[in-house]
Amino acid sequence: MPWIKQQAPPLISVIVPVHNAEKYLCRCIDSILAQTFTNFEVLLIDDGSSDRSGSICDEYAASDQRIRTLHKENGGVSSARNLGLDSAIGEWIVFVDADDYWIEDTALALLYDIAKRHNLDIARGEYVSVDAEEDVIHTQDYASKQAFGDKLLERNVFLDNVVCGEFFLVLCLIKHKAIGGLRFDERQIFLEDMKFYMQLLMHSPRCGFLPVTFYAYRKHTSSASITVNAKKIVDSFEMCDFFWSLSGNCIDREMVSYCRGYAIKMYYWTLQTLSEDPYYKQFDDISSQIHLERLHRETKVRRSLMVNHFGWKIDFILRLSPKSAVRAFRIYSKLRKRLNR
Prior knowledge:
Order of helices and strands: EHEHEHEEHEEHEHHEHHHHHH
Structural class: alpha/beta
Number of strands: 9
CATH superfamily of the largest domain: Spore Coat Polysaccharide Biosynthesis Protein SpsA, Chain A
Helix content: 40-55%
CATH topology of the largest domain: Spore Coat Polysaccharide Biosynthesis Protein SpsA, Chain A
Radius of gyration: 21 Å
Number of helices: 13
Shape: globular
Distance between the termini: 53 Å
Oligomer: single chain
């Protein structure tokens, strides 16, 4: 790798949390260094890796002054990103996961261009899902989003028509000043992006959409690569209270409705996930951790305060106890499988 000297203070800080990613790390870093926009720094946050990831980071840092490696004890992706935010000196922030990569060498140039032209705080692009061998398994269809491209968008329009429930921070170029002192919740191992994203949007940032697929999200589909952790279900249920609490800080009626709606939907979606194997076997443990009966009662009360139409499925599930609801989901899933044979 050629040694490259940084010529000017970086405009963009690229933060890459790294943990035991030696198999994919070079692909990730090389896709960043291949960018036509060159005024950036790369912060490789080695989060206590036990493989060669840390050494690979050091090798890249020795070859290019735009790269800094920070080694830390393992604390999870949120703590790694927080260290990156604390250390970043760029005017803009972008996150990349160490097993993913950029498929467009103009990604930074395009994101920066739209952000500057519309004086944005957040510029978001699109992604494609690939497998471990980089074969495309899903291409995001953003045809319906085209009308919202290359313009300033109000927060609610951005949420409803661009984010569309996919709170992926890795798709965003974010103004450093817009983040300010906001940091990731290090107690969370799941949906930490969603929480950070929503807290960021509470400050009514100027948002925009770049209708370009630039990010390759590597989806590990083998059973050995899928981590089953009850803490993920607990984190997901806790987002119900988070969204409801967030609604209390909103002045905008549409935002209040959005947050309260998600407080209800998160309960429904998480119960559905809890009904699946192997989480179902951990129902009692998860239920006691999250005080699920309490959350069930509060969700019913919250639903009664809203005029939103959620559909009969959510209202039906709310009439059942959590355990009965989970069983109903399992029965429904088995019936669907039989009908699809």
